Amino acid sequence: MENLLQLIVGMIFFAVTFATLVLYRLVFGERIQVAQRMDQVVGSPAPIPVRELELSVPLYQRAIHPALSTMARWLTRFIPSAREKELQKKIIYAGNPGHLDAKEWVVVKYLGAVGLGFFFWSWAGMAGKALPQCLLLGATGVPLGWLLPDLYLNSRIRNRKTQVEKSLPDALDLLTVSVEAGLGFDGALMKVAEKTKGIMADEFILMLQECHMGKPRREALRDMATRLDVDDLSSFCGSIILADTLGISIGNVLRTQSQQMRQKRRQKTEELAMKAPIKMLFPMVFFIFPAIFVILLGPAALQIMKAFAN
Q1: Which of residues 162, 191, 220 is at a domain's end?
Q2: Alpha carbon distance, N-terminus to C-terminus of the chain
Q3: Which of 242, 264, 286 is at the close of a domain?
Q4: pLDDT tens per residue, the chain (310 residues)?
Q5: Is 100 domain-assigned?
Q6: 8 Å CB contact between 90 and 102
Q7: Where's the Type II secretion system protein GspF domain (predicted)?
Q8: Which of 8, 18, 52, 262 has most Cβ atoms within 10 angstroms of its Cβ?
Q9: DSSP class of residue 48?
Q10: CATH number, domain containing residue 213
Q11: Number of domains, the chain
Q12: 21 Cβ contact list (under 8 Å, min separation 6)
C-alpha cells in the first residue's frame, strides 16, 4: 500500500513537470527559436573581462588625472583664492583643455617648473659644465617651466578667439537663412551645427544640450558668451536675449547682426591691409637693404680702398 502511494505521488510529480514544460514551450517556444536563430546569425557577444574594460580607458584618465587631483588637494592651501579664480577664468576661455580645474593646473605648473629645472641642470652636468653654470641653467629652467602652462593657455585663448571671429559671420548668415526659411531658433542652431565645423558648432551643440536639460535659453546664451569671451559674440547673444524678452522678430535681429559682423570683418581686413606696409618696413630695413647696399656699394668701396692704398 505504501509503495503504491509513493508510485502515485511520483507519477503526479512527473505529470505536473511535463505539463509545465509543455506549457512553457508553447508560450515561449517561438521566442526561444528566434533568439537561437539570432545568436547563430549575429553571434552572442562574449562577456568582456573587467581588466580589459579598465585597460580600455586611456592612460590619462586612469593614472595621470587622478594623480593630479590627489596632488591638487595637498596644494590647495598654497593657492590664493584670487589667483585661483583668475586661472579658472583663463581655463574656461581656453576651452578647458585636459578637463583640469585651476588647482590641477597649478600642480602642472609646479611639475613643469621642477621638471624643466632638473632637466636643464642634468643637461648641463652631462655636457661637462661647471657647477655655477649648472645651477644657473637649473634656476633658469624653473621660471620657464612655471610660465609654459600660462603661455599654452594664452595661445589657446588667442586661437579660439580668432577662429570664432572668423567663423561667426558665416554662421550668422546660415542662421539667418534658416530662420527666414521657417525653422525655429533652436532648429536653426542645430542646422548650423550640422553644416559647419569648429568651435562655433561645438558651442552651439553644447548650448542646445543645456537648453534640453532645462536651462533657460538666455542663461545658456550668456554662458556661451562667457566661455568664448568674444565681443561680437557677446553682442549677438545680448541682442537675441533682448529680442526674446521684448518679443522682437529674431529674423530681423539676425539679419542686422549679420550685416554688422560683415562690416566689422571688412573694416578689420582693411585695417590689417593698411598695417602690412608698416610691418614690411622692418624686415626690409634690417635684412633686404643691407644686402642691396653691399651689392651696389661694395665694388665702389673696394675701388676707393685701392685708390687710397696706392
Answers
A1: 162
A2: 152
A3: 264
A4: 545 555 565 566 566 665 666 566 665 566 666 666 666 655 545 555 555 555 555 655 656 656 666 666 666 666 666 677 888 888 888 888 877 778 778 878 888 888 888 888 888 888 777 878 888 888 888 888 888 888 999 999 999 988 888 888 888 888 888 888 888 888 888 888 888 888 888 888 888 888 888 888 889 888 888 888 888 888 888 888 888 888 888 888 888 888 888 888 888 888 888 888 888 888 888 888 888 888 888 888 888 888 777 6
A5: yes
A6: no
A7: 172-297
A8: 262
A9: P
A10: 1.20.81
A11: 2
A12: none
Residue 218 forms part of a structural domain:
yes
Contact between 255 and 188 under an 8 Å Cβ cutoff? The reply is no
Single out the residue of 230, 102, 257 nearest to residue 175, CA to CA.
Answer: 257
Phi and psi at 198, nearest 5°, equal: 120, -165
| Cell (9 digits) for 218 | 538666455
On whether both 90 and 232 belong to a single domain, the answer is: no
Judge if 116 and 197 occupy the same domain.
no
Considering the domain architecture, whether residues 192 and 231 belong to the same structural domain is answered as yes
In a domain, 276, yes or no: no
Q: Is residue 291 part of a domain?
A: no
Cα 114 vs. chain centroid, distance in angstroms? 27
Residues 136, 131, 114, 160: is their CA dihedral positive or negative?
Answer: positive
Q: Are residues 143 and 203 in the same domain?
A: no
Q: How many CB atoms lie within 10 A of CB 226?
A: 13
Distances (CA, A) of 267 to 248, 272, 276: 28, 9, 14
